[in-house]
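Hey,
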Amino acid sequence: MRKLIYLLLTLLVLTACTGTSRHPQLVAADSLLLIRPDSALTLLRSMSFSSTADRMYHFLLLADACNKCYDTLPPDSILREVADFYDRHGSANEQLRAHYLLGCAYRDLGEAPQAL
């Protein structure tokens, strides 16, 4: 009985420690975005991903790089999808970042009420 409790406790600790891991290229692009947004934009434009979480993170980084480089942002429909995804699955910082970039897309489209 005591071994079973230890086994269950160990499994609980191990499952609690596993988080969502990001694709290494996306992590590199995110850190590059802080110091060289133009290089990050070039790198992000050459990437594509199949998993939903990686694809949403990719679009988030791509929109952030476009915004920092004063380039055209991805369509607002994509950024709306990103914001909805992070509303369900993201941290508070990711939600804020997604909604900020969605507002920037609306600002660029001249939709001031939507941007707010």
